[in-house]
User: Fold this.
Amino acid sequence: VAARSEQVAEEERTSMLAGSIDVPPPDAESMHADAARAFCCVGCALLAPAPRVLNCGHLVCGACIPSLETCPACAAALVCVPKPAHLLAAILERECAEEAAAARLREERGVPLQQ
Assistant:
């Protein structure tokens, strides 16, 4: 009887695992879009090639920093100069190289906050 209940329990576990495998993984394109959105500046909503972190935790691009007095996302006052997020920039470069190159060019030209 014990062997029978162990067999039933194993079949149930196998059945549950098989059901979870049927879920298709997200496609690469949607994962790429999600990664790109995670690196958008809260000021201009464009990709921040070298993101800076505000004291509230939100990201901004270098072009928007001069025009900010508060965080555009949460209105927190800026109490210090936003620090570069080097690790995030490296991830961005790896995940979204083409978009990052275009965004770097935009930032180098000093495109201001878009309203």
In short: The CA atoms of residues 80 and 87 lie 20 Å apart.
